[in-house]
Structures are given as structure tokens and as C-alpha cells.
Amino acid sequence: MTDIATTGRALPHPAREELRLEAVLHALSDPMRLRIVRELAADEAELTCSDFALPVTKSTSTHHFRVLRESGVIRQVYRGTAKMNVLRRDDLDDLFPGLLDSLLAAAELQTRRLGDGA
User: Fold this and answer.
1) pLDDT-based confidence at 62, cuts 50/70/90?
2) Is the pTM of this model over 0.70?
């Protein structure tokens, strides 16, 4: 499944029925990707890639967003020249009930415990 924005650029996304638990868990296993998901979950809105202050290079940031998109954790669409990101919460919650909320809660507890700011 792909989304075509007004610019005509399409980004590939797995269809809902193609989402796999292994791919989602792999995507969320990286601290930077988990940080992106936590910010999307907290904001509950579309955010541009530049809205995230990640301590990595632009190419590494692009890689992290691609892994999240290709695993089905986020949806990305172009709005003009901006690439917008949104959490696929409904798909994840329906296919893997409680998973996202549990991971987000565990990440919050870990941040408090370790003070790692992730």
C-alpha cells in the first residue's frame, strides 16, 4: 500500500494485514526509534521529521523513520515538501492489543529509573 501526496511522491507502507509482530518489535527495539514513537504517541498529531530533535545525523534519522514506516509502526505522507509522520495506533492496537501501551509505559518507567532522557 502506498500514499501519494499532492507532490506525486509515494512512500511504501505495509497494509494492515501485512503487519508482523517481529517487525514491529524490531523497529521498537532501537532507542532512537522508540523515542520517535513516544513523541508521536504523546503529541497524537502528525509531526514533520524536523519536529524531532534527535542526536543523530540526518541520514541516520532518515533510516530510523524508514524502519518505523516499513514495519508499519508509523505512516508517512508528504504535505507539500514536508514529510509528515503519524503513529499507526489503531492498526497496532487492533492487531497487537495492549502492546503499544505496555511498551510506552515501560519506556517511561525506564526513563524515570535511569534518567536517560530517551
Assistant:
1) very high
2) yes
Q: How many domains does the chain have?
A: 1
Q: Which domain holds residue 8?
A: 2-93
Strands (E), 1-118: 2-4, 10-12, 47-48, 74-79, 82-87
Max Cα-Cα span within the chain: 45
* CB proximity list for 3: less than 8 A, separation 6 or greater: 10, 11, 13, 75, 76, 77
Coil, helix or strand for 86?
strand
Whole-angstrom Cα distance, residue 26 to residue 6? Answer: 31
CA–CA gap between residue 99 and residue 93 (Å, rounded): 7
